[in-house]
Specification:
Four copies of one chain form a homotetramer.
Chain A (H helix, E strand, L loop, with lengths): L3 H7 L1 H5 L2 E7 L2 E7 L13 H16 L4 E12 L7 E11 L3 E10 L4 E13 L2
Antiparallel strand pairs in A: 1-2, 2-4, 3-6, 4-5, 5-6
């Protein structure tokens, strides 16, 4: 399994947008993003795409391991609260894993631990080698 | 309603990531993104978050008008095909609109018109003034 | 591929709830249900579970063929309009098919062709020997 | 708030399909269903529509209270494991509540506490009186 720094650097879209993997273990990972002007949408709150990406990055870091490549096949997000400043975190954890499929959930929260979004993602497992 | 150029410039997250609103009318909009290295994930394909954002931006441009602000409250995306190079487009259209809620769908396609992702989004309508 | 009558009779949950497959071809199918008192929820409208099932049945009929068994792995539904009486229809169609996965969409409509719900489903393909 | 027996009896679709609300408190509820032949799909496992309904019923019981009517506006379900016999349970809990919207999650489990499905639902709040 890659360490958080390696995950952060390999994920170019997350990196370009100031997102960081801050912890990763088998089936669980956490990401972080400091809100900047370039994360905002047309009405001045953090873009749904940025919030989604932060959760999806946690999902990717948590679901990929030394032996498997897991590619996201679908994801759902409920946006529960607008965010405008400070830091956002996402944490993803495994709900189920079969031979070919994984299900994950994630939460995006702010520094006050308020829930900003709730995520559910499905991944397809490709065995390496 | 804003014109495509105004939408593009107001949406800072889309703008920062090289996304552009290329057409907008009431209930329908189209966006475009040229795939660059900074759009990729850790396995070298376009990041789910970038694909999601491109569709979400089309949803936002299509659903917001002169009189309403529509904020995304949930969204689902099925990732049907990996993308690695060239141009991606997203087109969003309105499925339903009630007093308080809208439902939209969107498709992300590549230059060969292959479907890269299918999106469904719900928005909450806040009346301006 | 089974004909509509065979599909209807094999799907015990649909059958028990008065749902019928009325047409089926490769990648597309249609179902029908006459609203009865036993389809309602606690506030007197058709239960989300009944609407979901009608769409899911169309998805199953459309995605299963002579050579494959497709099992639903995830589904999303936007409920756009309440229904209380008359007939409901669902139509499902294929959005994508890869070696292992299919994506479908479906619409539930009433007799006036108003959209009651919009559905997106993913299925996993098990090859029949 | 209605008691579990009242919820069970008011929800005609759940009742007709042998589903029962077994506990309910503000923001949390549990349902139960004994698997019968009429819950099955065409391949002999419990129908996705039945599993969805069991979770949706828990969501409805948990989200409706003395003062509000909450109607489901969208829902997503990941089907993680097939079920064929015994008893299924669903438990739903509130993730967020704003003035107009609620987000819920639910799990469907079997008697061995294995996860059969993971559910996310959004509801729109209509104030009574």
């Amino acid at each position: 399994m890659l360490n958080p720094k390696e995950f952060t650097e390999r994920d170019k879209f997350g990196l370009y947008n100031g997102m960081e993997v801050i912890s990763v273990e088998k089936g669980r990972a956490k990401t972080r993003m400091e809100i900047k002007a370039h994360h905002k949408n047309g009405i001045g709150t953090v873009h749904g795409g940025a919030i989604f990406t932060l959760a999806d990055l946690a999902f990717a870091a948590a679901s990929n391991s030394a032996d498997d490549i897991v590619t996201s096949i679908s994801a759902t997000m409920a946006f529960t609260k607008a965010a405008t400043e400070g830091v956002l975190f996402a944490e993803a954890w495994e709900v189920s894993r079969s031979t070919k499929l994984v299900t994950y959930e994630a939460r995006v929260t702010n520094a006050s631990n308020e829930i900003i979004a709730a995520f559910q993602g499905l991944g397809y497992i490709k065995r390496k080698v």
